[in-house]
Amino acid sequence: MIKPAPRRVLLFLTAAFVFMLLGAQTVQGVARVEPSKFVFTLEPGTRITDAIKVTNTQDTEVEFTAVVYDWTLDPQGRLVTFSAGERPDTLDGLIKFNPRRFKLAPGQSQYVRFTITAPKNGNWLERRGIIFFEESRPSPETVGSTMIFQVGTTVYLSFTETLYSFRLLGVKIEPTPQGRPVALLGLANDGQAHIRYQVAYEITGEDGTPSTAWTSGEQLILPDSQCLLTVPIETELPPGNYQLSVRLSFSGTTQTLSSVVPFTIP
């Protein structure tokens, strides 16, 4: 009699992946992982070593295994993961762990050291991956199935030869069914690495009097991609003519982009 192969049920307990991508202080699920993000820039052929602190937040002993996954974002900004090596921006073959597998008692912590080695030549596209610390346990609902719990940290690796390029394609004010307009920002990352940015705006009336101002949290756009960012106008504006002044600033640099758009509230 041939027995069916055990099934694996993946339960992604990543505490909202966007926190990992944008760099929250910690990520909690079946464990606490610190820090949640690493950003490295290396010269070709060099290497770097760092460490991740993993803490068991459960009340039982847990065995964890460090596994690297490729990832990207879909058009809706949702995380899509792949087995390491499936994407051209993979970290597969460039990263090693010590230890890769380990057990932790309740409340116990383990520092997992990892070393990343930059290639000596080739394509200088930024490499990225998610290091998930996985815990497997039998499923209580399905016989022969295994649940995989994951919590992790994001790693970005760029190189001194990596090219950066960002464009503001345009800004437009559009009405919504709710009555308040929104600002639509067309953005393009034509470079080889992800870019983190922040949006701030100020709205002034015809006489130059400020009506409202707003600043976003840190945003992320991946290389070789475009997006349409919707920025809410939080304040109820009476009918009249206005001017929207938008300013984009970028993490790790003093460069900014600005645009001024007139609009009317009928």
List the helices and strands and how they pair.
Elements: E1 7-12, H1 17-22, E2 27-28, E3 31-34, E4 37-42, E5 47-56, E6 62-73, E7 79-83, E8 95-98, E9 101-104, E10 109-117, E11 127-138, E12 145-159, E13 166-174, E14 182-189, E15 195-205, E16 210-215, E17 219-221, E18 225-232, E19 240-250, E20 256-265
Parallel strand pairs: 1-12, 4-12
Antiparallel strand pairs: 2-3, 3-5, 5-10, 6-7, 6-9, 6-11, 8-10, 11-12, 13-14, 14-18, 15-16, 15-17, 15-19, 19-20
Description:
There is one protein chain. Strands 1, 4, 6, 7, 9, 11 and 12 form a seven-stranded mixed beta sheet that branches. This protein has one helix and 20 strands. It has one helix at 17-22, and strands spanning 7-12, 27-28, 31-34, 37-42, 47-56, 62-73, 79-83, 95-98, 101-104, 109-117, 127-138, 145-159, 166-174, 182-189, 195-205, 210-215, 219-221, 225-232, 240-250, 256-265. With 266 residues, the protein is mostly beta strands. The N and C termini lie far apart (75 Å). Residues 1-20 and 22-28 have low confidence and may be disordered.
Cα-based radius of gyration, to the nearest Å: 23 Å
The termini sit apart by 75 Å
Largest sheet: 7 strands, mixed
The unreliable regions are 1-20, 22-28
Order of helices and strands: EHEEEEEEEEEEEEEEEEEEE
Helix content: under 10%
- The dominant shape is elongated
How many strands in all? 20
The structure class reads mainly beta
DSSP helical segment count: 1
User: How much of the residues is beta strand, in percent?
Assistant: over 45%
In round numbers, the mean pLDDT is 86
